[in-house]
Specification:
This protein is mainly α and 258 residues long. 71% of the residues lie in helices and 0% in strands. The protein has helices spanning 2-5, 12-24, 27-42, 50-59, 64-71, 80-93, 98-110, 114-127, 132-144, 148-158, 170-181, 184-197, 203-215, 218-231, 236-246, 254-257. α5 (64-71) runs antiparallel to α6 (80-93), α9 packs across α11 and α11 runs parallel beside α13 (203-215).
Amino acid sequence: HLERLAEHPRYQALVRLWEHEVRARDAASLAACLDAGLQPFLHAEEAGNQERWEQLASVLPENPEVLFTRALAPDAEVNDNDRVAILERVLALRPDHAEAACALALQHRAGNEPARALQVLDAALKNRPGEPLVHAHRGLCLELLGRPGEALESYREVFRGPLARIPATALPLAGMGLLRLGPLDTATRALEEASAARPYDPVPERLLALVDERTRGPEAAEHRLRTALRSRAPHPLLHYALGDLLRPFGPVRDELRE
């Protein structure tokens, strides 16, 4: 049951938190944690409520999920060196934490160390083979290292599992990677399949509109965006894309035209 709940974005963090504590503690110790203040946190309407996570940090300071939340704090609260140290601690406690691995790789990429970022992601794949989020970030690192063939293969891996379960942040990274590096028809087909599997997600239609604009002109892109806005719940991403398209002198899509 916990594994199935872990697939839901709203509950992932709490499920991972409890998995760690259930495995690490005996029944009495776990009950003591609840008595110390976890119960109010669990009844919060929003699992990511900052105040509740701060409460939890005082109870379970070494829980990987608590540490990960700390690593995501604003720059004013956590400097880059501390952020890297915290993320490394998360992965030491929970090597299969894909989000922490990707966050650490992002820190290394921002520090102009893509090779080091790739090492982190390759290690993550040993613990989570086929993880879409890791493959998406791995593709970016490989591009930075001048290895486009391997990068394309990593982006393709994102689309080889259940399309409805691709993490929301992985899809735009991998989708744009396919459009940059792969045959356009293959990338288009992958995005169309993702759109059909994810009717709630505006990203595939946004990327397909970029393809339409390039291959069939702005009218085709406008038609796709307006159709998506009518058939799906209105989303700011699609509204922004349409507004950008309709500007008299919209920006050139260099990422697709190179």
